[in-house]
Amino acid sequence: MQSKLIYVIFAIVVLIAGVLIAISLAPPVANSGGIPHPDIPGMQAGGDGAARLEYIGNLAFAFQCLLLGLIVCLCSLGVSERRRSRELMIYMGSSLGFMLIVWWQMYSSHQAFLESGTTAYFMGFPIATAWQVYGTWLGAIPLILIYSIGFRKYIYTSEDEEKFDRLLAERKVAEQDQPRKQASGPQ
Amino acid sequence: MEAYRQEIILGAVAIYMLFCVLTGLWAMKRTKNSSDFFIAGRGLGPFVIALALFSSTLSGFGFVGGPGLVYSVGVSSFWMVVISSTGYAIGFFLVAKRIRMIAELRNCISLPDIVAARYKSEAVRFLMAVTIVLGVMGYLATQILAMAVVMQAILSGTVMFADIGLVACVVISSAVLIFYCVTGGIIASVYTDVVQGSIMMIAGTLILFTAMSVFDGGMAEATSIILADDSEAIMPFGAAGIMASLGWFFVFGLGLAGQPHIITKMMMNKNISDNRIILPMSLFGYIMAALLWISIGVVIRAAVIDGVIDPLALPDDAASVFLSVFASPLLAGIVFAGLFAAIMSTSDAFLNIGTAAIIHDIPKAIRGHSIRNELFWARVVTVLLAIVAASFALYSYYTDATLVAILGAFGWATFSASIFPVVAIGLNWKGATAMGAMTAIVAALLINFIVQLAGIVLPYGISGGLLSFVTSLLLFIGVSLLTKPPQLDADIESVLDI
Minimal CA–CA distance to A154: which of A91, A61, A73? Predict the structure, then answer.
């Protein structure tokens, strides 16, 4: 609990704030947040995708990389410091790597579509969107496996369980003692 | 069967509502004190918790607003759904174990109880309780409104109730909700959640197959129609753009661990070690149910572009139009029951935490102790809270017809920004201070409300929710680092070490 991980998390959040400020200061683009569909009321259109990313594409990419880093750091924070072994950090690092690969594939597939105007399909969606739908969903599965499979090793070991049971027992004794002390009054 | 479409739908919804009422009566016998009423005596098994967790996560916002958002902004809104695996992972890593430990150790029955124990601060308890009440009002009103709108759509299709008004629908739907929440408290809530979650999973799966059969070429044809019309709408960042999309990823992903109606359920399981199976079960349930969000939204957008159906009067009509045009009466009946399930499972959770904040936490923060006869007052306040939220819903509907989805997102963002740092980080970092917590909560509330009420539009689709979330994270950690580290109680310190 005393590690420097919180400083890493803080640094990532500061960087994210910096990226948001930089994006806010970028030259405005008319359709950056969508435009009304020309024919169908109530529907929004995206318009020129390349124009929307012209000034902020790299910043947005960095934003998501930082966010994925933040997610893995936060999950690591949730593991008691005593259990943050080298092995766990390798697993966490690999999870981050997997999520970054998915993000890179999604982003670069979208860029490729913007340049070529053509796309293949995978399970019902254009490739870039398929990376988003299936890839992002699957991206955090390693974290879930670390939690579920590694539960007794990293999250809540038998030793932790015994310690918590002792805490509960101590609390119970303290609660039983309290009325007795109150009944005997000040000496 | 087609000739009896409305009757079949009405029958399915009526059976579902009858089930809720009976569950309320059954649970009333098991509700003997306020601990039973608010946290089910911490005695629930993993299957019940898993279904209750995911069904509370996917609300009317998911079933009504979700497909509506895909219709209006395309793939952008997928980001709120695909984040679920990350969101659940963060929630379990950061919250599930320690919130359950502190709940048992200190006999906590609410989230403000937990933060009061963690920070040794009644001021933090008070701010957390106020945040919950404010968020609950907006969110609950949204849910009640969604429920009434859907009920009106169903009933107005019958001869007998052709002219039924929205007010009558608010009264009927709220009455069922209030009945089982008042009688059975959280026990009724979680056991209805089990059935509600099951219905939602079945509905989501069946809808996916129905949606895939609308176009001969399946989902690929639907997405190619959208691509030909406006490629950005079906590309990963949708019509709303990259920063709106990634902002939703941030707010919905991290924010899941800041939703009080969800994390409160992490206090209710019987064994801490059950968390290892609750996590994958919850995620699986959510994904199955969320298929409805994606598939209906994509197919309706494609169908309108292709001229198969007329443009929708409102984006939120997407689900009901899909069901009336493309689904068989039986499926429509199941999905409408699932829709009510989604709305009610979230609403009852909100009623529960809102009531706890009002009768347990705010009095405790102000007077040092909670009110007498908590169970009685819990039931009274549950009724009053529902009535006030229903009135707020009607007022909002008739004076400002804002999208249900946007209201839902606003509620989620408020909770995410104000609760996530204080609870999710605070339970895992001894250096977090009460001053840091208070600063983060106040800043998050102020930014969210100012941006929303003043109608401030940030560049590149950056949302007020994202701004407030990042700010509250910065302030929480920054102020905590600058203020004196707290002297924690020995038992809390031990929990933070485990």
Answer: A91
Q: Which residues contact B245 (CB under 8 A, 6 or more apart)?
A: B75, B76, B79, B236, B237, B238, B461
Interatomic CA distance for residues B13 and B199, integer angstroms: 12
* Contacts with A, B 189-248, CB within 8 Å: 212, 218-220, 222-224, 227, 229-244, 246
Q: For residue A130, give Cα distances in angstroms to A102, A106, A133, B77.
A: 10, 8, 5, 14
Residue type for position B305:
I
pLDDT of residue B469: 95
Decide which of 2.30.110.10, 1.20.140.10, 1.20.1730.10, 3.30.540.10 is the CATH code for B2-400: 1.20.1730.10
Residue pLDDT, tens place only, B282-334: 999 888 888 888 999 999 999 999 999 999 988 888 888 898 889 888 888 88
Q: In which residue are the tokens 């059969």 written?
A: B213
Chain B interface, best mutation among A164, A168, A175, by max B CB count within 10 A: A164
Q: How far apart are CA A137 and CA B291, in angstroms?
A: 12
- The half-sphere exposure of B149 on its side-chain side, counting CA atoms within 13 A, is 27
Please list, in sequence order, all residues whose beta carbon lies within 8 angstroms of the beta carbon of residue B78, skipping any fewer than 6 positions away: A129, A132, A133, B70, B238, B294
DSSP, res B426: T
Which residue from A48, A56, A152 is facing B460, i.e. has the nearest CB?
A56
Measure the CA angle with vertex B75, ends B69 and B81; round to 5°: 75
With a CB cutoff of 8 Å and minimum separation 6, the contacts of B173 are B144, B147, B148, B151, B340
Rounded to a whole number of angstroms, the CA Rg of chain A reads 25
Name residues of chain B where pLDDT drops below 50.
403-405, 409
The CA dihedral of A49, A55, A59, A60, to the nearest 10 degrees, is: -20
Task: Note whether B78 and A132 are within 8 A (CB).
Answer: yes
Q: In whole numbers, what is the pLDDT of chain B averaged over residues? A: 86
Instruction: Give CA–CA dist B126/B128, Å, rounded.
Output: 5
Provide, as residue numbers in chain B, all residues whose Cβ is less than 8 Å from the Cβ of A33.
240-241, 244, 457, 460-461
Report DSSP letters for A88-155, one per residue.
Answer: HHHHHHHHHHHHHHHHHHHHHHHHHHHHHS---EETTEEHHHHIIIIIHHHHTHHHHHHHHHTIIIII
How would DSSP label each residue in B348-407?
A: HHHHHHHHHIIIIIHHHHHHSSPPSSHHHHHHHHHHHHHHHHHHHHHHHHHH----HHHH
Nearest-neighbour CA in chain A from B350: distance (Å): 26
- Name the residue in chain B with its Cα closest to that of A95: B86
The model's pLDDT over B69-111, given as tens digits with 9 standing for 90+, comes to: 999 999 999 999 888 899 999 999 999 999 999 999 998 888 9
Measure the CA angle with vertex B90, ends B89 and B92; round to 5°.
65
Residues of chain B found within 8 Å of residue A46, distances taken between Cβ atoms:
74, 230-233, 235, 237-241
Residue B345 near residue B191, CB atoms below 8 Å: no
